[in-house]
Amino acid sequence: MNLENSKIKAPFTVPEGYFPGLEERLLSGVKISVLSELRRPAVPEGYFDTLEEQLLSTTRLAPLNGTPGTPEGYFDALEEQILSRVKIDGLKRPAVEKGYFEGLEDRIMAEARLQDLPQASVPAGYFDTLEKDILATTTGARKEKFTLFRNIKVMRSAAAVAVIGLVAYGLSWNNPAPKDELAGISSDAMIAYLREQPLMEEDLNFVLEGNEVFLTSEVSDKEITSYLLENGINI
Amino acid sequence: MKDDEIIALLGNEATHEQAFRMILKAYKEKIYYHVRKIVVDHDDADDVTQETFIKIWRNLDKFRGDSKLYTWLYRIATNEALTFLQKKRKDNSVSIDDNEMLVASLESPRSDTYLDGDEIQMKLQKALLELTDKQRVVFNLKYFENLKYEEIAEITETSVGGLKATYHFAVKKIEEYLTNH
Prior knowledge:
Helices cover about 60% and strands about 0% of the residues of chain A.
């Protein structure tokens, strides 16, 4: 089909009497448009040229004056509004015990410090056996350095050991073939054992029974010291 | 009535209203049909025509006589019609080249659609809606208004060479549509 050789018209029509009415309506439309422009109030010549600068100057000066405009009666109602909001806010806040806030800061800080402490983990049941382990270690293996002149209790203990030693020596001298069950225990083991045992009065009585003569003999510190050194006891 | 007389009246602001009345009398139908071919629907064409003439009135003092009066008028009308269509598509959330709503106006005529054409006329209009807006405008001005390419170039503010190509492709596309439908 050759479109350009066959002149086809457009099928569009308009309502009857449309164009005469259109002209009138268009004139009315234009008049309304003109009137709406006329409604704009007249301004002095060059008004809009300086308006922007004037507005900027005003906004710059306003904070300097410190008196920005507020609606009439604004501050009268402001206090009341704030108080109302404070009351409402107070109602929202839960009650606390009297004096709760005193010392609260310290309590929080203490709690925070506790939580900050490093917490090392330990094997299960560690603390149940800890005491026993410590005792076993300290009493079984550790030898405390004997300081004769610093501790009177130790000195007394040493004296007691010396007495016991003498007694033992005496007994062995009088009875060269001991028959008791402790005969197999060495003197060092015995001394170590006795050093760590509280020596009660009845124990002494038991040991010295029949050997009271030793209690009456005076033994000086010098003699005790020299005896201990001779027997290899470190003081 | 010659355009020269109107242009002479436009030279004096005091005679602008007279010039406008003359423009209205001379061009209201031409502008209406030009717009109608773009927007298809009569009510839409009525709205756009009114907006076009209000814009013409407001811009009378800007007409310098550099172009022909009718090309200036058609340019305003074309721009108003195309702007109207873009807004309508946007309001209906359809793409920029979607002419479905215009096709619907042709295919389901209401009592106020104001269509009175034979089958080939209706088919041509449907074929036109296969084109882009710009192709349609160029085709309408060349085919129905018998304007020269130079005049259409002033209205559409495009080059003559581009217009010739646009019109050529538009004709081919329409002929193809008419052959296949």
